[in-house]
Amino acid sequence: MKQTIWSISVWGWLILMSGIKPALMADDVIDRWSSSLIKIEVTRHQYEFFQPWSRRTASNVKFGVVTQGEQIITAAEDLFDQTTIRVQKGGRGEWFQASLEWIDYHLNLALLKVQDPAFWDGLQPVEFADPVPATGEARLLRWNDGRLENRKLDINRLRVGRSPLSFIDLPQLELDSEIEGIGRSEAIVVGDQLIGLAVAQARNKCAAIPSFLIHEVLTRLEQNQPSEVGFFNFYWKKSENPAAQDYLKLTGPRRGVIITEIIAIPGHQNVLKAKDILLSVDGFDIDIMGDYDDPTYGKLTLERLATRGHWAGDQVAMTLWREGALLEVAFELPRANYQSEYVPTANYDMPPAYLMAGGLLFQPLTEPFLRSWGRDWERRAPVRLVRLKGQAPSEENPSCVVLSAVLPDPYNLGYQDYRYLVVHQVNGRRIVDLPGLKEALELPVEGFHLIEFLPGEAVTKLVLDAQRLKDATQRVMFKYRLPTDYVVGESGTP
């Protein structure tokens, strides 16, 4: 018995001397983390894209953690179109009013502030793990009916994946778990350190924003440095087939990936070209699968190098093989912007844009519109619209407008079944957005409006009496209780 006690004491002494932090036991976890975990209630507008003038109120519960400077960090999800935010400490009791101090939907992170000093009594900021452990056991902590739920997770790996609210790829911590309902910004911890915030779940796997990314963002905000994320605005393919590199006359061992397409962004000068072979990025060699060897986390896809210590506007060194020669270039990271997509992933904190003319409802094609078909929208939405999601924008064709519905009226008799048609031209003018459509409708041709749809649509064109359009629009607005006939983007409601 004495021998056992001596062995345990020596082991504890060795742990302390080595600086290794032993895993906290369950009671210690509860005591430590109960003063850092916050419950958040968000009330927001929820818009109906099939009837974009209507909206309803929705409430969601999520979680956050206390950071330095008396702030709460949480995922940005469910904070868009918010009207009120309340926070609660200890899992139950008094609610405090909070305000949104900063948000970045591409990073999926937000900062909340509470003005009432009483809220901060007894709270303490979390400690962020850096580097994040890529294997081992972790714990998920969240408030559940006033009790701090403490559940086991297995860390699978650090990977690069699509950000839940954006089109860009960011580092994510992947974990295995049988717990249901993960993804509301729950704290993922190892011992007394935060390793991530859970943001998504698919079957028995969940994804978390790693703590090193959260800490880096908070540090930049504290130092008033730009924190907008950049990305690589090009498509590439793997060089698995040797003939591809032979065709491009690459000498030496097989390496790198082939640039296939450049995404045009207004004001951004891209130094890359299609058929370039990308050999290295920021000093890291790229293999034929598009991976590089990260010194901390092993094999990661090259998209990680756009955010590994870099932000929008930074210059990233690249080595290319172009037309039989090596070329060194400096690639400027463009700012992530939803409007740089042909079919935008999102359009947060503003009502859906639309134009109603004589009962014809026009909307920009966006992913939120497609998601109106439900969770399985990629199979249930019209195929021709879903396919446009993969189209790259160009200066001549940056976006598109859809005739989404027709509100029946004598003026549009015969057209009431038309819907989900992509507009090509109106009165001979090419249409790529709602302002352009509005201008075209002010320029009838010989007393008529001629609306033409993309080639291949079930309907090619329709004709309307220009002189009767205004009265018909007013009549439809009154009949269907539309507050306005025109809402467009950041300009709001005219």
Secondary structure layout plus pairing:
Blueprint: H1 2-18, H2 26-33, E1 37-47, E2 55-67, E3 71-74, E4 82-89, E5 96-104, E6 109-113, E7 136-144, E8 147-162, E9 169-176, E10 187-190, E11 193-202, E12 205-210, H3 211-222, E13 234-237, H4 242-247, E14 257-262, E15 277-281, E16 284-285, E17 291-294, E18 298-301, E19 315-322, E20 325-332, E21 354-357, E22 360-364, H5 367-370, H6 377-380, H7 383-388, E23 401-406, E24 421-426, E25 429-430, H8 434-440, E26 448-453, E27 461-465, H9 469-480, E28 486-487
Antiparallel strand pairs: 1-2, 1-4, 2-3, 3-6, 4-5, 5-6, 7-8, 7-10, 8-9, 9-12, 10-11, 11-12, 13-14, 14-15, 15-16, 15-19, 17-18, 19-20, 21-22, 21-28, 22-23, 23-24, 24-25, 24-26, 26-27
What does the model show?
There is one protein chain. This protein is 15% helix and 36% strand. A hairpin with a 2-residue loop joins β7 and β8. The strands form five sheets. Strands 21, 22, 23, 24, 25, 26, 27 and 28 form an eight-stranded antiparallel beta sheet that branches. The protein has a six-stranded antiparallel β-barrel with strand order 1-2-3-6-5-4. The protein has three domains: 23-225, Thrombin, subunit H (Beta Barrel); 234-332, Pdz3 Domain; 339-491, N-terminal domain of MutM-like DNA repair proteins. The protein has helices spanning 2-18, 26-33, 211-222, 242-247, 367-370, 377-380, 383-388, 434-440, 469-480, and strands at 37-47, 55-67, 71-74, 82-89, 96-104, 109-113, 136-144, 147-162, 169-176, 187-190, 193-202, 205-210, 234-237, 257-262, 277-281, 284-285, 291-294, 298-301, 315-322, 325-332, 354-357, 360-364, 401-406, 421-426, 429-430, 448-453, 461-465, 486-487. It contains nine helices and 28 strands. The chain has 494 residues and is an alpha+beta fold. The radius of gyration is 27 Å and the shape is flat.
